[in-house]
Amino acid sequence: MQDVSSAAVAGGVRQPLRYRVAGMDCPGCVSKVEAALRRIPGAEDIGLNFHTQVLRLTLDEAMTPRATLEDTVRTLGFGVEPLGDLRIVADGAGGEADGVPAPAERPWWSTPKGRLTILIGVLVAAGFGTSLAAPAAEDVAFVPAALVGLAVFGRRALLLARAGSPFSIEMLMSVATLGALVIGETAEAAVVVLLFSVGELLEGVAAGTARSGIRALTGLVPRTALLIDGESAREVPAARLAVGQVVLVRPGDRVPADGEVVEGESDVDESPVTGESVPVPKQAGSPVFAGGINATGALRVRVTRTAADNTIARIIHLVEEAQAGKSPTARWIERFSARYTPAVIAVAALTVVVPPLGFGADWHTWIYRGLALLLIGCPCALVLSTPAAIASGIAGGARRGLLIKGGAALEAIGRVRTVAFDKTGTLTQGRPRVTDLVALTGTERTLLGLAAAVENGSGHPIAGAILDRAAADGVPLRPARDQKAVPGKAAQAVLAGKLIEVASPRHAARHGGPDEIPADRIAALEGEGKTVVVVLADGRAVGLIALRDEPRPDAAAGVAALRGLGVRCVMLTGDNGRTGQAIGRSLGIDVKADLLPEDKLREIAALRTRGPVAMVGDGINDAPALAAADVGVAMGGGTDVALETADAALLGNRVTDAAALVRLSRATMANIHQNVAVALGLKAVFLVTTLTGVTDLWLAILADTGATILVTLNALRLLRRGT
Prior knowledge:
Layout: E1 14-22, H1 27-38, E2 43-49, E3 54-60, H2 66-75, E4 79-82, H3 112-133, H4 138-141, H5 143-162, H6 169-182, H7 186-215, E5 224-229, E6 232-237, E7 246-249, E8 259-263, E9 266-269, H8 271-274, E10 280-282, E11 287-288, E12 293-294, E13 299-303, H9 311-324, H10 328-359, H11 363-376, H12 380-398, E14 402-404, H13 407-413, E15 418-422, H14 423-427, E16 433-439, H15 444-455, H16 461-472, E17 481-486, E18 490-495, E19 498-503, H17 505-512, H18 519-527, E20 531-537, E21 540-548, H19 555-564, E22 568-572, H20 577-587, E23 590-592, H21 597-608, E24 613-617, H22 623-628, E25 631-635, H23 640-644, E26 648-650, H24 656-691, H25 697-700, H26 705-720
Parallel strand pairs: 15-22, 15-24, 22-23, 24-25, 25-26
Antiparallel strand pairs: 1-3, 1-4, 2-3, 5-6, 5-7, 7-13, 8-11, 8-13, 9-10, 9-12, 14-26, 16-21, 17-18, 18-19, 19-20, 20-21
Helix pairs in contact: 3-5, 3-7, 5-6, 5-7, 6-7, 6-11, 7-26, 9-12, 10-11, 10-12, 11-24, 12-24, 12-26, 13-24, 15-16, 18-20, 19-24, 24-26
C-alpha cells in the first residue's frame, strides 16, 4: 500500500487509502461519515473503525480528487489525517497496531468541543446574570448562547442532510432550538444547546477512555533495550530491534521483544500477555513475550519478532479488528433504530398539529411539546448500547489473556450448552513422557531406536516424548526414509529396507495380526491412564511403548467451573477408551474415545443437535473440529495458531479460562440488556412526561445525551471486571 501523501496515481486506477478520523463520539458518527463518502463518485470499499478511528477505502482519483474526499469529512465536523502503510508499535509511549502512533490525548478544555462548550456555558451564565439584573431583558439575554450553538450544530446538520443523514441528532436539536427561539422560549433554547454541547464533550471523553483500554497494552513494551554487542551491551530503541539480535534482560526489566532465551535462568511474569498471575520459569530454549517482567536472574534473549509483529502488537491488531465487526444484536438494533427515529419524528409532528387543529388546544403548548419530542428521537444511546459493551468485553478479555475474534463469537460463547475438549495439549499438559518399554523381540534399546528413527522430525507430542527418551538413554538416531503419518493411525518410515510403524493398538491389530499383540498387557497399561503404541516391523509387532500425559493442574477445576455454569463438558480423544476413561474419571468429564479426525466432526454435529457447542483444542490437529463447532477456542500462549485460528484463544493455556470466557460473554450480554433498557427506558419515561407537560426541553435532551453517557460508563465496567 502506498502512502496516501504520495503523488496522484494515473486516472482510472483505484488507490487504497487510509486516514485517521478524529472527533468520533459514538458509532452513529461512523454511519454519518460512511453515508457521506458513499455519495462520492469513485469511492468504494468504505470501512471506518470507530475504535481505532481508521478509515479505509479505495478511490478513483480520475473521478474525485482525494482533497475533495478529505474536505467532505472535515465539513462534517471531523478531523482527517492521512496514514501511511507502517504498522509499528510505538516505543512504549503508546500506539496502535493499525498504522502509526496514536495522537496524544489532549485535555478536554483544549479541544474544539471543549472550547465551544466553555463559550456557550459562559454565554448562558451571562444570560442568567442579565435576566436577574434586568428581568425585562430575559427574552434576549439567552439569544446569543442559542445562536452560537445553532450556528455550529445547525451548519453541521445541513451538511449531514446533504451527505445523506437527514435524521441526525444535530438536525433534531437544531430544529428544536430554532423552534424554541421562534415561540419565545429563549432560555430553554440556550440550555438545550449547552446540555447538548456538554453531552457531546462527555461522550468524547468516554469514547477516548474506551479506546485507551486496549491501547494501554502498548505501554507495557519498554522504550529501550540492551543490545548485546560483543562483550558489552548498549542501549537502543526497542522498536528498532531486528530478528536474530540478542538482548540482555536484567532482573526487574521488561522483555523488549518476543524471543527465545539463549542463556540464563529466571522467572518471568507474563501476566500482561497471557493473564497468568504466577511467574513462569524460563531457561535456554524457552519462549518469552514482549512486555513480560523478568523477576530473578539475568537472561540473554534472541529476538524472534520485530516490534511491528510482536505478540502484544498482534493482539491489539486482532482485537481492534474484532471490535470493528458487528454482532448480531448490534445489527438488529441498527435496523430497529433506522425505523425508530422517523417514527418519533412523525409522532412529534402529530403532537404539534393534532391537539390544536382537532381539539382547539393551545398552539404554543403543543409546539413546545412537539419540539421536546424531537430531542427524544435520536437513537444515539440505543445504537451505542451494544457496540460499547462488545468493545469493552473484547478489550477487557484481551487484557486477561482471553482473545475473542469478534462480537458474534463473544455473543455465541455465552449461549453454549456443551464444551467439547480435546485431550492432548488441552486437558493434559501436552508433554507425555515414556513410562514403559515392552520389547516383544530384541531389546528395549532396539525398540526405542526403531521408534525414534520413525518419529524423528515429527511435531506430534508422542513423537517428542519418544525422542526425548531416546536422547536421555543415549540411543543414536538411525537414518530413515519415506517418513509419513497416517492421521489417527500410525507414523511410518523405511529403515534398513523394512517398513517400521509406530501405530495405535487398533491399527496394529488390523495390520499386524491380533495374535502377536499382548492385549492383556496393553489393557493393563491403558487402565493406568497411559497411551500405548505398538512398534511394527514389516507388519510384525516388535514391542510396546507406553506414555502418560498428566492432566493440567487446573483441568479438574476448569471442568467443574463450567458445570457450575450449567455447561456440559465432553472430552473428544483419539486415545483408546480405557486411557480416555482413566483421564475422564480424574477430571469428572464425559469421554468419547477412539475417535479419528472425521469421528470428531460427527461427534460435534451430534452435540450441536442439543444446543450450541464450543470446541476447545490446540488449534493444530483439531482445526476441523474447531471449525465445525459453533465457537472454536484455541489453547495457546501467544502462538501463531492461537492468534490466527478459531474464534477465540486462551493465551494463558488455562482450562479455567474456558469458564472465564463463558462468564465474560454472559456479563457482556447482561450489560447490553442493561444498556438497551436504559436507552429505551429513559426515552419512554421522557416521552410520557413530555406529552403530559411534566418535563421541559432541557430535560428532554437528557433522554439522549444522558442515556448515551450512562450506556458508555456502564459498558466501561467490563474493562475492570474480574473473571
